[in-house]
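Practice problem: predict the structure.
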Amino acid sequence: MAEVKTGQKGPDLEETLKAYFWQAGYFAVRSVPFRLDDEDVTDVDLWLYERPAALTRRRLILDAKNKVRPKAAERLVWVKGLQSALAVDGAIVASTDKRSSSRRLAKSMGVILLDGDAIKKLASSTKLQLDDQHSSEVFDRLFKAVDTARRSNEWRLAILAARSSLLTSFGAHSANTALSAAGFFGEQAIMAAPKSEQAHVAIRGFYSSCAYAAIGLDYMLADLAFRSKDERRAALINGIRYGDIDSMEALAAIRAAIGLVRQYAPNGNSTAKQVEHRFEQQAANVPVEIIADYIARLSSADALYNVARELERNAYSLNMVRYDALSVEARSLLGVFIDFHDLSREKLADAAGGVSRQPVAPPIVQSAQAEGTGSLFPDDGKKGAE
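Answer:
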């Protein structure tokens, strides 16, 4: 069953491009929503993250249009503006347009253009016709199906929140958002009946959220490479606990708010001290040291990146491998995240037992499938130094 095909030209092209960049070593995510003040603005067809060197990180966005009458110039202008708004390092347009004028415009704007000839080659490549992965449409409908059965929208909102954070708050904030989603899906997997359809989908959400947390933490490490282990640990604690590796910067807004309480609230000084004490108490109760201790000791510089790719791949796999069949590094990181949320490793491992190696999808997957029937880049804009 070739899940890379959706039966629609646009999504099929996006899946092909995702497969291409994934095989080229990128971390690739499709259909990432761009939200501003809790409102959906647009979505990014493909979000790409690469780690070309130990101290280098790069994020790119890709806009794909597979139309009979392509408007490449319009898409080039649009994606360049979105690149600026998101402050990412590069932009790509994939269009069936073959005009030389479009290539000249793309070059002048600093946008990569994959034109009609490139798309034709990619679409005809048998190496990109994956048969072991769910399309993004099917993956998202799995969570929608669970929500429908539960008469809620919690599951879909949780996975989309983790995904959208990759665009607007990548790094410490996105890692925290993804960790929250991972905790939610971990709890849901444990509460669900063993080997049930809900447990199966919850584990997919857990793996994917953990993957997003891992690359967010990997992005943080680029600025910490030359610090001592203790300094890395302290910076990671601040990042996970407060959202910024610099404690002074992270607490500036909190201190400003407490200052306003002290100045304007009745019994301001006393009230401000209570607020400050309760905030510090609650922050101290978050067991971030569990994660910081583990990551600060990592011996392999690309460990988080490799684990993130493994977990995301397994989340979308038609046949998720058993928990104990994951790499040692992946199981170790998952164990740290599980401990952070004070969940049972044994119970979650049982819930993530895995499915048969044979390509037989459970009923909820079959339902979701049926519903949906019918280096290229310059070296500028890098995070860190070579």
